[in-house]
Amino acid sequence: MIKSVCFFIFIFAFAMNLNAQDLSKHQWKDRLVLIIAQEKNKKFQQQLTELQKHQQSLKERKLVIYQIIAEKYSTGLAEENWKNSIELFQKYKEEKSDFRVLLIGLDGGEKLDQTKILSAEKLFNTIDSMPMRQAEMRKNK
User: Fold this and answer.
1) Which residues fall in a coiled-coil region (predicted)?
2) CB 105 within 8 A of CB 31
3) What domains lie within the chain, and their CATH numbers?
4) I need a labelling partner for 137 at 20 to 30 A (CA). Which of 8, 14, 30, 119 fits?
5) Segment 88-108 mean pLDDT
């Protein structure tokens, strides 16, 4: 009986881990912008609209956008390919606000964190001042 229970716990934990989104796969390849909200509220939509205007600049800076709401998440700016998971929301939600934008650098570290709409200008200035981005810009000249 105990072996059966342990086996089912193991299988359940393994299955949950497969469903979990592991952001570390982006480390040293992509910068991430996490847009986190309880639901697709006004700020959430405004943030998406702000970023959609600058898709080429996002690409140049190796930015991957994660849309994260309470029970699911999606990558990119399109309203498709949602995956059911609460883990990213639970990990990154802001306790005192219903909205959060988080920039994660190539090294996996948090570089910018705010609970109001992030302007593309502020996002790009923050990234462009980073040493790795400076090196990328020199290399691409």
Assistant:
1) 34-61
2) yes
3) 2-139 (3.40.30.10)
4) 119
5) 95
Token reading at 67: 């849309």
Give pLDDT, residue 108.
Answer: 95
Backbone angles phi, psi at 84, to 5 degrees: -75, 125
Does position 93 have pLDDT exceeding 90, yes or no? yes
User: pTM for the complete prediction?
Assistant: 0.83
DSSP codes, 52-106 = HTTHHHHHHTTEEEEEEETTEEEESSSS---EE-SHHHHHH--TT-SEEEEEE-T
Instruction: State residue 111 phi and psi, 5-degree precision.
Output: -110, -25
* Region of 92 on the Ramachandran plot (φ > 0 left; ψ -120 to 50 alpha; else beta): alpha
Question: 63-88 pLDDT, tens per residue?
Answer: 999 999 999 999 999 888 899 999 99
In whole angstroms, what separates CA 29 from the centre of its chain? 14
Strands 63-69 and 72-75 turn out to be antiparallel
Tell which residue, 94, 66, 58, 95, has the closest CA to residue 82. Answer: 66
Q: What share of the chain is helix, strand, coil (3-state, %, to 5)?
A: 45, 20, 35
